[in-house]
Amino acid sequence: MSKPLKNKPSLFDLVGGLSAIEKVHKRFYDKIYLHPWLGRFFEGHEQSAIELRQSQFMALKMGGDIQYPGMALELAHRRMYISEELLTLRQSILRESLEEEGLAEALIKRWLKIDHAFWRDIGKESMEDFLDIDLKYEKPLIIPDPDKT
Ligand code: HEM
């Protein structure tokens, strides 16, 4: 259960708590891992670990009384060239997963709004966004869209 604000149920409660969030993310990452472009970013990352972190992160942001022991999003994605196009594609797969899990449209909109709020911590517009990386030791992870190569 989450701490209620002015007696209103949180989004966490409305979507059905942590187990409902985990079900959505299982469905979502099943699709992401199979995707020819998005899936390549996750090579070498265990799917169940990613699902758990994403679920804890979203549960917390939805008002759940949950610990998120993962990294700050900017740090977790710092080497990845993630364009707005890629974020939009990822969110369309997230919407599809939420619809397949039978969530009401109003709850889907609220979920996607929270997701969108973190795009600015993750998205890259150009190579200049990697200036905080010492390119002698680390390389940006750039994966081209297979449909455009
Ligand atoms: C196209 C966009 C995205 C791609 C390709 C992507 C890819 C990844 C990858 C590969 C990891 C594993 C990083 C690691 O363990 O070193 C990761 C972690 C994570 N991502 Fe994303 N991500 C994207 C967008 C997002 C968005 C929009 C959110 C939140 C709303 C998000 C939340 C997270 C979280 C919570 C973790 C776990 C961090 C940790 O384990 O400490 N990601 N992502």
Please explain how this structure is put together:
With 149 residues, the protein is mainly α. The chain has one domain (12-148): Globins (Globin-like, Orthogonal Bundle). Helices cover 54% and strands 0% of the residues. It is globular and about 50 Å long. Bound molecules: protoporphyrin IX containing FE (HEM). Protoporphyrin IX containing FE is lined by residues 38, 41-42, 45, 50, 53-54, 57, 70-71, 73, 76-77, 80, 82, 86-87, 90, 115, 118-119, 122.
SSE pattern, N- to C-terminal: HHHHHHHH
Please give the count of helices.
Answer: 8
Architecture (CATH level 2) name: Orthogonal Bundle
Shape: globular
The main pleated sheet reads as: none
Number of domains: 1
The proportion of strand residues reads under 5%
What does the average pLDDT come to? 94
Structure summary, number of beta strands = 0
Low-confidence stretches are: none
Give the class from helix and strand content and strand pairing: mainly alpha
CATH-defined topology: Globin-like
Small molecules in complex:
protoporphyrin IX containing FE
- Report Rg: 16 Å
CATH-assigned homologous superfamily? Globins
Name of the top-level CATH class: Mainly Alpha
Q: Ends: how far apart?
A: 48 Å
What secondary-structure arrangement, pairings included, does this model have?
Blueprint lengths: L10 H5 L1 H18 L3 H4 L5 H15 L11 H4 L7 H17 L4 H13 L1 H4 L27
Helix pairs in contact: 2-4, 2-6, 6-7
The chain binds protoporphyrin IX containing FE (HEM).
Protoporphyrin IX containing FE binds next to α3, α4, α5, α6 and α8.
